[in-house]
């Protein structure tokens, strides 16, 4: 535990001192003493401070601050934080937030002195937001307008505060009653509704903006457009507000409440998002609804129909449906975008083989099929998002393989293919003559890769030319007079990058599955977001350097935390805290769940990384962390009805003692016996004297 | 009970008896005679000794044709034998007043054909989407004549092999190479030998009760349906079922008073949820009774009753009917009790003395006034008489022995290879579910067919392989639309075999046969266990129209009164013994865990908070894994921090089918940078107090794109 942490801390500082001779804040480091080392807040805040030495400025005098404000004008907003002492919880919260937002806002840290305004009693930590970006041109004051955060300092509150600074005014077209309460972490923030009339729309917007500015950080302002029929509030009102629930005030309370309310809060992120958006149904005008009745006619109408099979109650389906509609709106007319509600057209979605439907029963939702008249359906196998789908459809529009026999065709093909990552060519230098088995294999491959890869079949003049041009990169696939060749050609934009990526890929959310499927251990470099060309080059150099560490056993790859912010918590989870960047780790070893960290103090050069890897293999390195458990038990307890029933009606749930299970209509017998007995004095009200 | 059983058993075909002994409807006799002549010619042509079939279906009513369809679709060697010249002969006569009370709801607001069968009680199952009763009638309560028309179209369009005019008078079983086969003998002494006999003869023998004077009673099967014939008459109807009320309703406007008598009080279908009880469509008499008109209901056991004839002289009645010979005498029927009868030697005399009448003993006796007619409307029973002792199923222990007793998969007790279908199979769910009615037994016929396919042809029950991350959606889909478990609530249910990463989904299994699931279905139960999805009504007796009739809080779903889905989780198949000793009123034994989905007014169980999430958590408990959906980003995190991400990520994200957060395009479109920063914020801030505590959990709902809503 502790010795390791200390070591790590000191190492990182060493690195920092070594790297940043121009550091303006050596004093800060000198000022921390050993007492604070053995404190997690102190460790985290100091490490982050070291990492963010460029991002977080340290200001001692008001003049310094003014200079900072001037330089930030029109460019960026400033987050000004005051912490009473370093290495505290407050300091850590601020630094953690800076770690997240430093690319967006300029962070400045003060520790008291003349910078603090007179009215501040300087007993507790404070944060101000200086609105420099939007008020760049304003001559009225030298200083940027500022907003003070009124809550006590914590990472969560700070996060919420910064979010609020960006979302002062929103416009809605529904009644305030149907506007959902603000989302976490703003659930405590009151909402103010102003009603706008069509006649005074611009004026209303202006005054609402002004008010939003006044209420920034205190309330969320919503402008309600009255012309919308969904607005039901009576005309006599021009404003409304909603205060949020008192009992959620304290963060501690919230935790407690969660314990009991987990029954009534959606815990599934996709379902929660969809539920959140339930008031605004997507506009489905741009897509055709396919039904059992119109299916064949609609497919026949268009050369390419993209059909989404969805279930209304499936959150992933509904989430994807909105992306699907976005794609439909972006696409031109030659592709028919359509959807099948499988909750309604169950016979179409589940059509058994043998029926005249060109696909097998749909068993996974959502599913996307590409349907062409008189052809079997092609299943879309990509990400369930708009971007990937759009790309796939665009590529699918081109025939696969496309026959190219003139130079003009080749040129236009390449132009169209410009934004694609991979092009597949078959080159037939000699168009006539031998029937090659390679052709049908290629055609098959091209067909099944349609949408993912663009493929062209070159013949005639250009084929001969290309053959000469790319002799070295051509893959021979057929033995038939050596005529057929395949060329894998990355598209122009990515050509250089792609080449590099083949050896040292950058892991992203999209491509991780492909690399994980290799089943190799990952030698993973985490690179932070660079704010200048120098930084970029530095990262680049590191990645280049790592290319020298190619081994069969490991996949050498890297994550850019700016482009893939999800990598941040990965790193944190690996090591238990945030290490200085760049950080190199070895994980997903076939031998065990251990994670090894390359010594942060050692410069990342191929030879020493290889030595380190050898040490890991020899078992002389100690792991820095472990992978999490593979079992994913339910995150929440299920509601045990049997237990509840046992408690409330104990007898009703127990198995019976073995008896004759002869079914006798007890009631019938009872009634009959009563009635057949002779009771002369029976009351007439029953009409049952017999 | 035992005496009754004996009486019924004696109706089975005696070894020396001929097929002519069988009761035959007088008006059907001429039918048969006619077709007999017609078919003599054809049978001469193919009279070639015994005909052999794998399957013989006895009767071309709804159940017979339904089974015929399944056999035909599976291309089995089968024949449907029908004594009449067309299908559904019962419906040519019954109901006597020619209106079906099985609903034919054409407009449901839905296009889902499976869902719509929940509200179509007459159509049979087929793969022809338009082969529904609505084609012959658009009425909510269709005329009875529409039904044989529909059945004819069904048989014809599906090209079912039906042989009409074959009146099987004797059924016997003989040993055969495969164990046992059944030999059916028709009216021309031709034999049909079948490996499997599917009895779908329905219920058509009028149920009778023996008592003194029961010969003076008219039967529902032969009464006049012309209300004029009841003008100003006092009518006593025996029975309080739908046929009794249907009769009462038709004479209400012409009879002077209508009394209805049976041992038990009226049971209203809308209270008992049993469609065999009195339907509101027939219950006008309850209205007139309680609104002090001259009609009424009385409870008494018929066996203790005496109906006696008494001639009254010189009294004028308004009725036009006269006894033969134009006497001024009116025949009157008196009701009295066995115990008031004086000892008389001549049993033939149905006349009764004044002191034998109840009014003599109790001056306010309800039934002291005489009746012009007494009508028996006690329903129908199975015709046991054609079965040789070797092939005769015993009488059911319930329903006064009116049905043949069958096992959990409708095979006759002691008659392997003989299955009972249709109305006659109702002993399994008598007064509990819909197995005695078309909208119920069409599904049990399908289940029996699957049993046959498995047993005789080695075909396992159809099943769908569903990945476990899709299971929730599948269950919701079935709960939202499936008509079989909906109509045959507590009798048919879906069985889900858990297999880890995937499941085997078996639809509409016979719940009572669950202990024999593996052998009947051909699917093994793995160590992961199984889930059964069934539909149930609440078990408490409540005021069906009272204030507290509906439950809306999902945590109190087990107290739902209306039809709602219930899921049972077992680690292993329940045993026969556990099945027998199951908790009172439960369709299945006590499971490992149970989940009730709260009743829903619209029968749409797709509320994210009330229905879906509690169900998902139950499933998570059963499969012991997190079944939530995650965005690609969360999957990315968990795939890198664990060797395996959660199931949803394994089956989606890792197969390159990740779900990126969609950015709903709104004006103004948020700039890419702002969005990325917001996301980074969402990803980077969890855990204000410990270093980086739960990387995955809080990344979801709480920190979601809700922040971006305000852009």
UniProtKB/TrEMBL annotation, chain A:
<dbReference type="InterPro" id="IPR057642">
    <property type="entry name" value="TXNDC16_2nd"/>
</dbReference>
<dbReference type="InterPro" id="IPR057645">
    <property type="entry name" value="TXNDC16_3rd"/>
</dbReference>
<dbReference type="InterPro" id="IPR036249">
    <property type="entry name" value="Thioredoxin-like_sf"/>
</dbReference>
<feature type="region of interest" description="Disordered">
    <location>
        <begin position="649"/>
        <end position="690"/>
    </location>
</feature>
<feature type="domain" description="TXNDC16 second thioredoxin-like">
    <location>
        <begin position="49"/>
        <end position="168"/>
    </location>
</feature>
<protein>
    <submittedName>
        <fullName>Thioredoxin domain containing 16</fullName>
    </submittedName>
</protein>
<dbReference type="Pfam" id="PF24509">
    <property type="entry name" value="TXNDC16_2nd"/>
</dbReference>
<dbReference type="Pfam" id="PF24510">
    <property type="entry name" value="TXNDC16_3rd"/>
</dbReference>
<dbReference type="InterPro" id="IPR040090">
    <property type="entry name" value="TXNDC16"/>
</dbReference>
<feature type="compositionally biased region" description="Acidic residues">
    <location>
        <begin position="649"/>
        <end position="666"/>
    </location>
</feature>
<feature type="compositionally biased region" description="Basic and acidic residues">
    <location>
        <begin position="667"/>
        <end position="690"/>
    </location>
</feature>
<feature type="domain" description="TXNDC16 third thioredoxin-like">
    <location>
        <begin position="169"/>
        <end position="248"/>
    </location>
</feature>
Automatic annotation (TrEMBL), chain B:
<dbReference type="GO" id="GO:0004497">
    <property type="term" value="F:monooxygenase activity"/>
</dbReference>
<dbReference type="InterPro" id="IPR050982">
    <property type="entry name" value="Auxin_biosynth/cation_transpt"/>
</dbReference>
<protein>
    <submittedName>
        <fullName>FAD-dependent oxidoreductase domain containing 2</fullName>
    </submittedName>
</protein>
<feature type="region of interest" description="Disordered">
    <location>
        <begin position="659"/>
        <end position="685"/>
    </location>
</feature>
<dbReference type="GO" id="GO:0050660">
    <property type="term" value="F:flavin adenine dinucleotide binding"/>
</dbReference>
<dbReference type="GO" id="GO:0036503">
    <property type="term" value="P:ERAD pathway"/>
</dbReference>
<dbReference type="GO" id="GO:0005788">
    <property type="term" value="C:endoplasmic reticulum lumen"/>
</dbReference>
<dbReference type="Pfam" id="PF13738">
    <property type="entry name" value="Pyr_redox_3"/>
</dbReference>
<keyword id="KW-0560">Oxidoreductase</keyword>
<feature type="compositionally biased region" description="Low complexity">
    <location>
        <begin position="672"/>
        <end position="685"/>
    </location>
</feature>
<dbReference type="InterPro" id="IPR036188">
    <property type="entry name" value="FAD/NAD-bd_sf"/>
</dbReference>
